[in-house]
Amino acid sequence: MSKKISVILFPILYVVTIIICIYFSYNKGLTGDTGDYFQMAENLPKLTNNIFPLLYSITIYVISLIGLSTFTSSKIVGLICLIIILSISIRNNFYKKEIILTLGFKIFSIFYFSWSEPLFITLFIVYIYLYHQYEEKKISNIKFTFLASTILFLLFITRYSGLFILISLIIYQFWNYLKDKKINYTLIKTTFISGCLSILYLIFNYLNFGNFFGDRKRFELKNTESFFSQVKNNFITFSHAINPIYTEIDYSILAIRISIIISFLFSILFLFQLIKIKNWILNKSFYRFLITNAIVYFLFILITSLNTKIDGLNFRLLLPSIFIFYFLIIINYIENKRNINIIYILIFLSILINTASVIPSFSN
Question: Read out DSSP for 88-138?
Fold first, then answer.
């Protein structure tokens, strides 16, 4: 029964919940960043700015060619991305139950928004799937190099933070070399090719827009915030980001203020669980690959957050790291045959709360 709940019921609930939120929410999953993405998509094939990389806007533009609005196209992108993740895990039996349950820790809610994150996390999961297939020798070295290099490049042209995933691969190779004293030439070639492609994209940016990583003038408005304030805000947003239940935060609502305390408690439990399974993670190469990506990505996001002062360590910025952290915890639960009823309860709460938080009659 529990397998049917995770593999059949939850995917259906995720898709239905997203559709309900799109139709009945007060903001339709649109934010300030959405306007920039839509403007870039509507101006294609003419290039107007590089505030964000191009791939997400290109996907919206391509779908809109069949006569749909940019809004509708963006929602279709989100749903297609969710379906791709579910298809990869279910059809290829790639940690099927674990991925579906991990999505239930509020990650599914990201597919409701018109952001690049749905595309980014989809490409990231495809990337870790490819690495798993490579490690299990279910894919040739040449095929892995070609596909993984392509995915790493697509990650970079979806979000500039995709560069941190490439850096993670470099650090992972260095870690493996220190551990085994062996050089993995397949991973080196993958790193080199994706790195060259990323450099070409940066050159393209510079030639067309005069900068490498987007217009930095938009960062100047928040540069007066003190370092202490940044640390405090990052601590609050990080605690909120890693809670497994709700995505939205609104300090004008008393219940959500209380949620900061709940989020902090979740963060303590979360970190405790990771420490508890540390040796289990380090004993398997694939898990080391995952945790390297999670930690390196988190550290570089922290550094750039403190440097640019744009956003705190919010759910959007930390999405790949959060996905991996919870993914590993759930894998451990299932491998050790621990009672996962608490996970089912948290997922049902996540679906209810994330739906209620964006529907006017509940959120007001």
Answer: HHHHTTSSHHHHHHHHHTTGGGGGGSSSSHHHHHHHHHHHHHHHHHHHTT-
Q: Where are the alpha helices (DSSP H) in the chain?
A: 2-4, 10-24, 32-43, 55-64, 70-91, 96-104, 117-135, 141-156, 162-180, 185-209, 227-241, 254-276, 278-282, 285-308, 319-335, 341-356, 360-363
Cα 130 to Cα 165: distance, rounded to the nearest angstrom: 14
3-class secondary structure, 283? coil
**From CA 42, how far away is CA 70, in angstroms rounded?**
7
| Distance, C-alpha 13 to centroid of its chain | 20
Q: What angle do CA 319, 16, 96 make, to 5 degrees?
A: 55
* Cβ atoms 148, 293 nearer than 8 A: no
Specify whether the CB–CB gap between 35 and 124 falls below 8 A. Answer: no
Closest by CA position to 314, among listed 254, 204, 233: 233
Q: What angle do CA 234, 299, 212 make, to 5 degrees?
A: 95
* Torsion sign, CA atoms 115, 98, 95, 272: positive
Q: How many CB atoms sit inside 10 A of residue 299's CB?
A: 14
Tens digits of residue pLDDT in 251-282 = 444 555 555 566 667 667 777 777 778 788 88
Q: Which of 335, 336, 334 is nearest to 344 (CA)?
A: 334
**Alpha carbon distances (Å) from 100 to 7, 96, 305, 321, 359:** 7, 6, 30, 17, 24
Which residue matches tokens 């190469």?
285
pLDDT at residue 190, as a whole number: 97
- pLDDT confidence tier of residue 283, bands split at 50, 70 and 90: confident
CB 13 within 8 A of CB 351: yes
Distance separating alpha carbons of residues 15 and 118, to the nearest angstrom:
13
pLDDT tens-digit series, residues 290-300: 999 999 999 99
pLDDT value of residue 311? 66
Rounded to an integer, what distance in angstroms lies between the CA atom of residue 121 and that of residue 23?
23
* CA 152 to each of CA 177, 194, 307: distance values in angstroms, whole numbers, following the listed order: 22, 6, 24
